[in-house]
């Protein structure tokens, strides 16, 4: 039995194009992608590469030459794996691009459910993502139908380029850095956290869901929730900020010129905070 792995690429027109392609590859000098995880199913093969990419190779069974037989007297068969889809780990929409680590995650493990309907990936940023293999098969059939019926005559014979789709978080996006500050709310089932990933997150411990999340340019050292659950006080490396908790955002409405606040606590109408060796 013979196994072949071949990507879906368009043929190069002539030797000049080959030289130009080589020059482009050398000039770009992209980092080499390493394989970090592999999982197989009866329908294909999933190969995880960095950063946060899974290549899906579709299994294609081809009958070999009937005149060719193996040493056991059985006709040999050939299995070809064709690159059909690329699945990417999504970027946290609440993260800013300049400090985002989630856009450069490495997939450490891949696993497929016994029914081969769900593929789950875990990353080095402590995130878990899932993808429905059934939906991918429907998408592949739709792409093949469009290619077969709508492609122009000039492109007949060329291979259909593979599409790129995204994983979905299994639960919600978690902190991918050490948690530095945590506080609970008295009147609402809320927990506020801040971490070294420069994000502030509001959790609901009754529904076990993430209510709000926002990424900042500065690192947050401490956090405190108002008893009403409507405000938070966050100590950043540059300032101390009092913020409103809105429906879909965390918005600053007052700033205090206090740097590196490591501890902060809220009362009903006042707050106390410590910076270095001083308590204000």
Account of the 3D structure:
With 280 residues, this protein is mainly beta. The chain folds into 2 domains: 2-11 and 32-169, no CATH class; 179-279, Neuraminidase (6 Propeller), CATH 2.120.10. The chain is built from 2 helices and 21 strands. Strands 1, 2, 3, 4, 5 and 9 form a 6-stranded mixed beta sheet that branches. A 4-stranded antiparallel beta sheet has the order 6-7-8-10. A hairpin with a 3-residue loop joins β12 (190-195) and β13 (199-204). The protein is elongated. The relative contact order is 0.10.
How would you briefly describe this protein structure?
Keywords: Repeat, WD repeat. The protein has 280 residues and is mostly beta strands.
Number of strands: 21
Low-pLDDT windows of residues: 1-13, 21-29, 145-161
Number of helices: 2
Biggest beta-sheet profile:
6 strands, mixed
Distance from N terminus to C terminus (CA atoms, Å) equals 75 Å
Main structural class: mainly beta
Mean pLDDT, to the nearest integer, reads 73
What is the number of independent domains? 2
Principal-axis shape: elongated
C-alpha-based Rg, rounded: 26 Å
Percent helix range: 10-25%
Region (Disordered): 1-30
Keywords: Repeat, WD repeat
WD repeats: 190-213
Biased composition (Basic and acidic residues): 19-30
């Amino acid at each position: 039995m013979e196994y072949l792995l071949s990507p879906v690429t368009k043929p190069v027109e002539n030797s000049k194009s080959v030289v130009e392609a080589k020059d482009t590859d050398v000039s770009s000098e992209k980092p080499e992608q390493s394989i970090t995880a592999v999982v197989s199913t009866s329908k294909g093969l999933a190969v995880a590469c960095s950063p946060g990419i899974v290549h899906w190779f579709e299994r294609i069974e081809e009958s070999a030459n009937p005149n060719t037989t193996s040493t056991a007297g059985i006709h040999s068969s050939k299995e070809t794996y064709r690159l059909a889809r690329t699945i990417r780990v999504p970027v946290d929409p609440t993260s800013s691009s300049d400090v985002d680590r989630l856009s450069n995650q490495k997939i450490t493990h891949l696993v497929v459910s016994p029914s081969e309907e769900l593929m789950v990936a875990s990353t080095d940023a402590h995130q878990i993502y899932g993808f429905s293999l059934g939906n991918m098969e429907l998408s592949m059939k739709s792409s093949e139908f469009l290619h077969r019926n709508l492609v122009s005559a000039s492109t007949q014979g060329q291979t259909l380029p593979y599409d790129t789709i995204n994983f979905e978080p299994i639960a919600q996006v978690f902190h991918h850095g050490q948690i530095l500050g945590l506080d609970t709310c008295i009147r609402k089932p809320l927990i506020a956290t801040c971490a070294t990933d420069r994000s502030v997150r509001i959790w609901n411990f009754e529904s076990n869901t993430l209510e709000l999340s926002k990424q900042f340019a500065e690192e947050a050292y401490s956090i405190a929730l108002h008893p009403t659950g409507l405000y938070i006080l966050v100590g950043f490396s540059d300032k101390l900020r009092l913020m409103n908790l809105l429906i879909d955002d965390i918005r600053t409405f007052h700033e205090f010129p206090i740097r590196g606040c490591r501890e902060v606590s809220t009362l009903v109408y006042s707050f106390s905070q410590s910076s270095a060796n001083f308590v204000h």
